[in-house]
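Lecture 7 notes: from sequence to structure.
We start with the chain below.
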Amino acid sequence: MNVLVVLAVLAALCAGYGLLLSRAGLRGLTCTRRFARRAAFEGDEGEMIEVIGNDRPLIVPWLRVESRISRHLQFGRQENLDVSGSMYHKSLFTLMPYQRITRRHRVRFLHRGEYNIGSASLTAGDLTGLFQCSREIRTDAAVTVYPRLLDDRELPMPFSRLIGEWMMERQLQRDPFLINSIRPYRPGDPVRDIHWPATARTGEAHVRVHDFSAQTRLMVVLNAQLKENQWDNLMEYEQDAIEREISLAATLCVRALRAGLTAGFAANMPVGMGEESALLLPSGGEAREEELLTAFARLRIVRTRSFNTFLEGLCALSDMDMVVLSPYDSAALQLRLAALRARGNTVRLFVLEGGSR
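Predicted structure tokens for the same chain:
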């Protein structure tokens, strides 16, 4: 009889506590998430930091945090984390009063793009599972994954030569308006470079040292079609060739910028949720690399217009060094390239593997 009384008391206590938990709901329970860095390159590893807090004087016997996360973010398995199909993530916690738990999840970024773990479902309950409550919360953990940059071994030989040519052109052309420094006069220095104020101040002849100008205005043009008569958008399994284009274009732009040149790109694809074709004219500066990489990350492999029509729209551009990346070549394509050359552009076409000639 005493055992039955004890069991009845325990059951009443559990029911009462469960009822109290359900009445309190999820007030005072918090969940925040963020990535350790806001940008990474495809293939890199990083961390997602998750903080679970209980800001009330009640024990939470169990708290389940569930969310759907892109399969392109690969989480490592760890204690109390269940990953189903690389898309469904579930964590289970027990929280003491006023306890705060910080967890660091290792994650590998498998594919370029913009990712936001926008929401999570929180469910709390008692030991019996009879009383529970749930709600959806916003977390907004965002990360931008840049396309993978190719190293020297992966970069096709023609592109390596191109970068070398651009560097040589830059070093051969000094800009009379860019002054790098002032130094003492040396035999052979032109008289026009003498810096008279410094000469008068020191009593010895000094000359201006000119910086080299970034004459190359690199414009990389990408084709989102695998063949000329393609009208529909590519299926996901067909997009590898375009992804290689994007990685190669990003590599060329970054190397050009780091060599002191200007760079931009155009594509018959939209950036983000826009509908217009991508067009970023050549420019330089400290923030340019991040700007271009972010645009490459946000490219959607959706054809905005046929490539031939897109090239016709670029004929307003002039005096640029254009590198055209395409999975195919054709007579109609060559006609458009000739029109671009007639505008004073240097145009080089590179047919990449994955399409048709």
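Points to note: The first helix runs from residue 2 to 24. The chain has a mean pLDDT of 82.
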